[in-house]
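Lab notebook, page 48
Experiment: co-folding of the full assembly
Goal: obtain a model of how the components sit together before planning crosslinking
Operator: M.T.
Materials (sequences as entered):
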Amino acid sequence: MEYLSILFDQVYKILFLLVPVLVSVAMVVWLDRRVWAFVQKRQGPNVVGPFGLLQTIADALKYIFKEIIIPSTSNKVIFILAPIVTMTLALIAWAVIPFSATQVLADINVGILYLFAVSSLGVYGIIMGGWASNSKYPFLGAIRSAAQMVSYEVSIGVIIINVLLCVGSLNLNDIVIAQQDLWFVIPLFPMFVIFFISALAETNRPPFDLPEAEAELVAGYQTEYSGMMYAMFWLGEYANILLMCAIGAILFLGGWLSPLEIYPFTLVPGPLWLVLKILLLFLLFALVKAIVPRYRYDQLMKLGWKVFLPLSLIWVVLTASYLFYFNLLPVN
Amino acid sequence: MIAHSIFFYTFSIIAIVSAIMVTASKNTVHSVFFLILDFISISCLFIMIGAEFLGMIMLIVYVGAVAVLFLFVVMMLNVAQQKNQWFSSEESSKHIPVGLIISTLIFVELIIVVGGWKYKPDLFDINNSIEINNVSNTHSLGQVLYTDYIHIFQISGMILLVAMIGAIVLTFRKRVGVKTQSYIKQISRERSDGVSVVKVESNKGVKIDD
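Observation: model returned without errors.
Model output:
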């Protein structure tokens, strides 16, 4: 009985986290399309529901009722597993995101490592989909994406080390609380910029959307997918983007902390601040998609390995030396 | 504790079965996927014994990077179509004695390691001392890694560096006559480099040097 009550308690908590995440993924797709249209002086989706807010729900319904086509030469088990892996990995990472000092599903010691591990596993959905389709465009897309995601993960890892040097803990709540006086975006501003660009590459967003470059590869690894399986790739992609925004907000923008600890700001609860910061980062993501043209593939790899990696490594040495010299290293 | 043992046995069964499937499956790419499943279940076991840092690093390094490159290579080699024919052919049976000797050696070594660990006298004291100190796994690793074991740590880093340089040297080929694009050159191109305004006399034309 005791186990059952613990189980129900956890299931209730998980649903309370996942349903808002899924709903906000749907809203965010709408926001992305609206921002994109706004930059191009178009209207964007504005018909279904108020301001077109229900457009994504309508699209999802359309996907559900479409036929799922599995190519006869594909590797069927892996072909079906690929979107499931993408979707699952995009959702399980939210378990450790702290929405306030107490509102966190799993407050684990190695929270940031967990996030990093889950986001580094995200490449498997794409590789599996691309390989199992047994077709040229998906395979090329999958190979591009594997190389791209592995390259940019390295610099994201080094950037996380920068932040961890200032915090002295791998717990996400500790990282947020360490920014009580000063958000890390100010002392580590170059790292924030590199993190943002690497996050664009990690989530295959434009200008780094080479795995699904429609001009060259039809739709990359998603070419053979249809119906609900395509929709799962699509939802997983946006959930991943929101997740990277959340990681950026926690590492650099102070997570659930309010910008100033004075009267009007303290009225707004912590979770709302986190949501606002995630939305701010997402708006940047959407604007970049609308403004910047696609990178060439060799430039993308050069940027990752020859610019971002050395720069962030140098910054680790600088941060460590600064903290050591001024005796600011967090020791507990 | 019941839930704990249920999880433990689930993960161990998945680990063992997927380890067997790595060698047993006909398709090489499937083998790599089973290897990844094996890594994941082993990192779950690490987390269950309280070594959460090792478990996460295992996920990041082995599953997130090494296995991706592994999969990459296996897919590119197109061995999937060979379907492990090599292992059942006449030629491969010549290698069975060598393989047997090596696997016996590894097995004996494993027995020695496991036996030594099992009968280590102060095993339980170490367990208790961690709980008393109330230091997290990551902190206790960091406290010894850069102080007591700094030389071993540095040497293993050196070995990895040498292996990396060796891999680059072995595969590096200087190709001549290859046209490459340098983006620094492309960006730093000025208008004056490309366009020049020339006064052309009529019926004479311009001489273009290239």
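Interpretation: Residues 52-77 of chain B form the longest helix (26 residues).
Next step: discuss with group before ordering constructs.
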